[in-house]
Amino acid sequence: MSEPAHNVLYAQAGGVTAVINASAAGVIEMARRHPEKFGKIYAAVNGIVGVLEETLTDTTQFTEQMLDQLKTQPGAAFQSCRFDLDTLAENPEQYQRVLAVFRQYNIGYFFYNGGNGSMVTAQKVADYCTEKGHPVTCIGVAKTIDNDLALSHCSPGFGSAAKYIATSLLEATLDLISMHNTSTKFFALEAMGRNAGWLTIAGGLIKTQIPDAPLIVLPAERAFSQQAFLDKVNHFIEHKGYCVCVVSEGLTNEDGSYISIENIEHTHSHDYTQLGGVARTLSNLVAQTFNCKTHSAVPDYLQRSASHIVSETDWQMAYRAGKAAVQAALDGLHGVLPTIQVLSEQPLVWRYQNVDLVEVADLEKRVPDSFICDDGMDITQAALDYLKPLIKGERPIPYQYGLPAIAPIQYQCIKQQLPPYKVVK
Amino acid sequence: MSEPAHNVLYAQAGGVTAVINASAAGVIEMARRHPEKFGKIYAAVNGIVGVLEETLTDTTQFTEQMLDQLKTQPGAAFQSCRFDLDTLAENPEQYQRVLAVFRQYNIGYFFYNGGNGSMVTAQKVADYCTEKGHPVTCIGVAKTIDNDLALSHCSPGFGSAAKYIATSLLEATLDLISMHNTSTKFFALEAMGRNAGWLTIAGGLIKTQIPDAPLIVLPAERAFSQQAFLDKVNHFIEHKGYCVCVVSEGLTNEDGSYISIENIEHTHSHDYTQLGGVARTLSNLVAQTFNCKTHSAVPDYLQRSASHIVSETDWQMAYRAGKAAVQAALDGLHGVLPTIQVLSEQPLVWRYQNVDLVEVADLEKRVPDSFICDDGMDITQAALDYLKPLIKGERPIPYQYGLPAIAPIQYQCIKQQLPPYKVVK
Question: What is the Cβ-side half-sphere exposure of residue B251, based on CA atoms within 13 angstroms?
């Protein structure tokens, strides 16, 4: 006779993507298929904070229709926290609280859909519970628009943000082609990415439609050289009449300082420097240098929430990340992260393969030299070959009243059963 | 025996829209149906500048397939100039040149797809030609994302930009709902519109999906009150945990000065003050006042070029604007602009009706008081009722390599036959 099934807990953490909820749907659907192994499937509301504060939801209430909604909804349907546990030595109380919650709800499987740092913390929590006599399996579910996850061909969430950036830059380029003769001659688009220029190089994809586009690509991996930049802008304006540019929000000067319109760097209570403004800085620089009209755009969150233009390839990666995590648990693994391994480049054939969470935790994948041209301001054919399959395919979504039908899904939280616990953020 | 057909000239001018080329297709298709009236259909490349410089293209080369491409392409396929003729008294030579070009190509019909100011100039040119013994009919074709065209229910181009703004704000709102608990609590989206807040109020459409959204709408029609704004932000953060905001780039202080991050206003050779930065200014203000994380986005040109999310209603309006202009010429009219007249509000039933160009030229339609709530920071039900039908419907577009298939259409220009003429810009 088999032992009684343990319950599942799924949680979301860190910056959202347009497809993170597809991973949630993947976890729920796959776990439902194995009632012999998995009992109830809970989701924490607000990541690890929701675990600590015992704000949980029982996904049994999710009908097929709600799961379909989940699959097209941007943001994190279960809320995503920017909060990491302290170390066990620093704050044993936090770990005891997680254990108490896991015991209360008979959690045996913890699927954590977050950054790799958070996922390692989740694993440590699971290990702690196991040591205390309540065995918990922890599996990571990858997601990040930044694409800086190591040991994985790419990250779920990146392809859709890349498609958004490339589409936006392509459309703006047609605007400049139309009007540069008597109006704007330079346009800069600012892409997210503090240290990694993956979304910036995605702007280079406009070359699949306009091979000779007068494009400057400034990834965070290269320090900014003002003179070389202005020389290239000048060349393009002289020869093509206009120039378009895509730039990493985290672009730095040679001395490592961020390029920004603001000299006063805003810091808030989490002591996190707010980036943004580099596109406008470049735009003003070009306007002043060449006495011409310039424009800039900063899509900011729009690029990571654009449910209306997700990449089908990326969506599949996100959905299958959830399923692969559950499969890893079925296979009896613990402390692993399913990552994307490529079997064939053209056409792209890939599968999930597990790596140890601790192995990827401290690695950050930046854009390799082979993807950036010698002048540091354009992308290579190798980069195009890498990027093209990731933005491939469109996923139709339902509309209501002319807008994506993405009203937040309403679900009930479970009545709290443990003593109240308030996280200090 | 009927007199020989005169030729047609079509031109685009001013800021582009995502659907201006649908108007071009409407003109070409409708004129082709009436060979008894219209001879060759030319397009000027770069608006009135293209007329003066004799850079013309014969649209006979446009196959059905090219016309289909035209119907989904953002920007201005024939290039759009920001250039107006001088007055006849100031610069008679310009008028003589246009007459020479019109005579050379036997132009009898001039369809001008531009701002109303430019269209009146076009009419004056046509009148001049007629006086000099070369009769020319001039008809306007409306377009502007700003929706500030008077005597028309709305403007072709507005509905698609409105759909883009509302979709973007809705998606970003889901981001904030996901993450505000431990991260960003305020987000501002900057919409185009120097004096008219039409695109800003379009952000209010997110209420069709999230009726109780903690939303602040700041149209250019109302001066900014810092205290009232901060009070409302504070209220929303306290009661809902977050606040989203959509703001006109042209928002001003009580004294009429623009709110901007930059104290140095950049002016270029056309002496045009560059707006932009108000969303970031508000975002920084909230961050500093409430010591919380904030973000902002500036879509800039993306909102007027987003071919991938046009409104089907708007597209039909643009396409039929072109056809209505040709119909006006068939009806023997001159100096008119087909404008949108509403026959029924719900569901929206509309048709084109001609008004005299001179009648609309100096009128600017701003957002009426009845569309803005008493506190000046939200929109009314009347505004929602007006906006909803304009963003209705989606128009699927072809994709290639994961991007909208909008590579610029290649066409040949006619070999110049007149002495060279260079416009000084």
Answer: 30
